[in-house]
Amino acid sequence: STPRTVAGKCFCIFYTLIGIPIFLIMFQSVGERLNSLIVFFLTRFKKRLKLKNQEVGLFELITIEFFFTMTITLVASYVFMNNEEWTYFDAMYYCFITLTTIGE
Question: For residues 54 and 46, is the Cβ–Cβ distance under 8 A?
């Protein structure tokens, strides 16, 4: 559905100009907290293994986040496939489009 009146269209423009920056700030904040949590657990894991280098590098952080994202996408696709009676590819497509906020 789309607004048909000038007032409705102006409201949507105003709402978007305010809403998108707020969403980006929230998304960045969640990302920073997720990074901190991953660094905390990975540092503890390295200490437990008594590794020489216990600092968490950027490559390690990105790799873990990539696998975390892929796991969520694959599991969610499986759930959608079963609940919505979609093919697995259609469910993966839906999850990817939704996760990247491209929309349809």
Answer: yes
92 pLDDT more than 50: yes
Cα 37 to its chain centre, rounded Å, is: 15
- Cβ atoms < 10 Å from Cβ of 38: 16
Overall pTM surpassing 0.85 (yes/no): no
DSSP assignments along 25-36, one per residue: HHHHHHHHHHHH
Q: How confident is the model at residue 104 (pLDDT cuts 50, 70, 90)?
A: very low
Compute the distance between CA of residue 20 and CA of residue 24 in angstroms, rounded to an integer: 6
Among residues 14, 75, 55, which one has the least CA distance to residue 6? Answer: 14
- Give pairs for 32-39: CB < 8 Å, separation 24+: 34/65, 35/61, 35/65, 38/64, 38/65, 38/68
Which amino acid, residue 14?
A: F
